[in-house]
């Protein structure tokens, strides 16, 4: 992913509208690209400040920490989703394999009856 793509996804990240794959690529880029991280941080702070206009004033430092926590949380989320997907694919193949074995055995059985 290049910086332009990453920058265009900052809003999606903050509003939680990215798909798991998009989020995964975005997080990967953010980790390796300080300038995009800074961009995200700025947006995050602005967005958070706007959401909490009436609330107590948070320190900018706290928001940086908050973003770090948010990134970790989303990283875990992506990781979990990927594991779930792997398990789902695994189960799918097991079912296919099971059906193949089942029909293989049934086919063999029928062959034995016929011949
Ligand atoms: Zn970048």
Question: Can you walk through the features of this model?
Answer:
The structure is a single chain. This protein has helices at 3-14, 20-32, 34-51, 60-114. It has one domain (3-114). The longest helix is centred in the last third of the chain and has 55 residues, at 60-114. It is elongated, with a radius of gyration of 24 Å. With 115 residues, it is mainly α. The protein is built from 4 helices and no strands. Zinc ion binds at residues 3, 6, 29, 33, 35-36.
Brief sketch in words of this structure:
The protein is an all-alpha fold. It is 85% helix and 0% strand. It has one domain (3-114).
Order of helices and strands: HHHH
- Strand elements, count: 0
Number of helices: 4
What bound compounds does this protein have? Answer: zinc ion
Which percent bin holds the helix content?
A: over 70%
| Low-confidence region ranges | none
Proportion in β-strands: under 5%
Radius of gyration: 24 Å
How would a textbook summarize the main sheet? none
């Amino acid at each position: 992913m290049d910086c332009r793509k990453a920058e265009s996804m900052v809003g999606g990240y903050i509003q939680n509208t990215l798909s798991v794959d998009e989020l995964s690529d975005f997080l990967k880029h953010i980790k390796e690209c300080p300038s995009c991280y800074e961009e995200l941080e700025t947006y995050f702070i602005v967005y958070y400040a706007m959401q909490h206009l009436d609330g107590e004033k948070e320190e900018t430092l706290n928001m940086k920490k908050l973003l770090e926590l948010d990134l970790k949380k989303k990283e875990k989320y992506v990781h979990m989703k990927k594991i779930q997907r792997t398990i789902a694919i695994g189960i799918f193949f097991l079912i296919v394999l099971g059906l193949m074995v089942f029909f293989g055995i049934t086919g063999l059985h029928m062959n034995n009856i016929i011949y």
